[in-house]
Amino acid sequence: MDKNFLNDFPILRSKMNGHPIAYLDNGATTQKPESVVRSICGYYGGCNANPHRGVYELSVKATKAYEDARRKVAKFINASPKEIIFTKNATESLNLVAYSYGLNNLRGGDEILITIAEHHSNLVPWQRVAQATGAKLNYIYLAPDGNLLQADIDKKLSKRTKILAVTQISNVLGLVNDIKTLAAKAHEVGAVVVVDGAQSVPHIPVDVQNLDADFLAFSGHKMLSPMGIGVLYGKRKILEEMPPFLSGGDMIEYVEEQTTTYAELPQKFEAGTQNVGGAAGLSAAIDYLQGVGFDTVERIEHDLTTYAISELKKIPYVELYGCDAPNKVGIVTFNVKDVHPHDVATILDAQGVAIRAGHHCAQPLMKFLGQNSTCRASFYFYNTRRDVERLIEAIQKVRGTMHIA
Ligand SMILES: Cc1ncc(COP(=O)(O)O)c(C=O)c1O
Q: Does residue 210 sit in the same domain as residue 65?
């Protein structure tokens, strides 16, 4: 019997439109347990000061909170603390790689390979790098079950490929890509591997050594932490050779009138005052997540996902996308025939069920699927089978509410 996680999440015990909340938008952001909220309050109430700058006790405590969080994150993904750069989210982490690594290492004739299932955060920055350097942006498309097309991988990964940037789990289809195999193939041709872990790090154990990823980006807010704290992991040797992305305070060694030398890793990439409260929250979130255990997270999400898919398949006017592949985690994407996804989401909202509707920041994928937009229910370990039942009951009312026979 699993613990009743709702005891730890006050917001999930509150109401939405007069109904208990069935929060099924975890792909967008997760709720925060009380221990995380307490850690942020504890930081601001007990040791807030500007880190790395002051010599007085409060500043030293703030520095310790920040650097302890970095060590926690490093251990969590099996990296070294010098390889952990705090950013504001996965988007900023991916931009950092694109602008600092991409702009400085690519030229005309080179190729960047991404997949058609990328979130705009791992797509638009590469478009811009391609436009600025003359490199070509290539895509791996999807097989009918939603997985990456093997023939595309074999054909498009070549000596010209300098960067392979790929999501570990699609935020629309929930399909898990085999990063370890992809990274091995990419390294064979000399490409650098950038992994978007925004949807994977919160849900499955991620070990950067085992994957042999060169970069990994993720956001704290999708894994129980506050918004405004994100992570970029990068292999030390590559990070050391990269120029800074943002410049300003705390990322320097010496500044002269015309020139500057930079601080060592990871400070070189952390210009300006740091989000120490966010880092403290992320540290508490990792503690909480490890207390739950990824075995439990994966088991619950697998159960909810398969239950939701089997119930949705019984509704003749529901169309599902990417739901037949076995390597699927926590995300179910669908449409109700003849009803716009925004109408579906609004009707569900009136019944206390929170889902996402729209293009999910993946417009090229939507086009590939032949849809303008879809509905998405995304689960986390604190969801229950009752939440899935509430989703199904609410969907069954949609067409009637829209007066569709
Ligand atoms: C796969 C994926 N990558 C990147 C992002 C961007 O995350 P953020 O908005 O926290 O930067 C998201 C957000 O939904 C995502 O799902």
A: yes
Ligand 1 centre and the CA of 28: distance in Å?
A: 8
**24 and 117 belong to one structural domain:** no
Q: Tell me the best of 30, 87, 171, 363 to mutate to test the pocket of ligand 1, counting ligand atoms within 8 Å of each CB and taking the most.
A: 171
The answer for 168, left when phi > 0, alpha when psi is -120 to 50, beta otherwise, is: alpha
Q: How far is CA 191 from CA 130, 247, 374, in A?
A: 15, 27, 34
Confidence class of residue 326 from pLDDT cuts 50, 70 and 90? confident
Gap between the Cα atoms of 375 and 345, Å rounded:
7
CATH number of the domain that 18 lies in? 3.90.1150.10
pTM above 0.85, yes or no: yes
The residue from 262, 290, 318 where one domain ends is 290
Residues at CB less than 6 angstroms from ligand 1: 27, 89-91, 119, 121-122, 167, 171, 196, 198-199, 219
pLDDT of residue 2: 81
Residue of 207 and 324 predicted with greater confidence: 207
pLDDT score, position 1:
66
Coil, helix or strand at residue 389: helix
Query: In the prediction, which pLDDT does 405 show?
Result: 79
- Mean pLDDT over the full length of the chain: 97
Verify that 346 and 368 share a domain, yes or no: yes
Please tell me whether residues 350 and 268 are part of one structural domain.
no
Q: Mean pLDDT across the stretch 102-129? A: 98
- Residue 261 backbone dihedrals phi, psi, to 5 degrees: -110, 150
The residue whose CA is least distant from atom 9 of ligand 1 is 91
**Same domain for 279 and 344:** no
Range of the structural domain that residue 152 is part of:
37-290
pLDDT exceeds cutoff 90 at 3: no
Assess whether 51 and 176 both reside in one domain. yes
Tell me how far the alpha carbon of residue 282 lies from the centroid of ligand 1, in angstroms. Answer: 16
Considering the candidates 41, 47, 323, 361, report the single residue annotated as catalytic: 361
361 is annotated as an active-site residue:
yes
Per the CB < 8 A criterion, the answer to whether 24 and 378 are in contact is: yes
Taking the alpha carbons of 159, 165, 171, 176 in that order, is the dihedral positive or negative? positive
**Cα 91 to averaged position of ligand 1 atoms, centre (Å):** 6
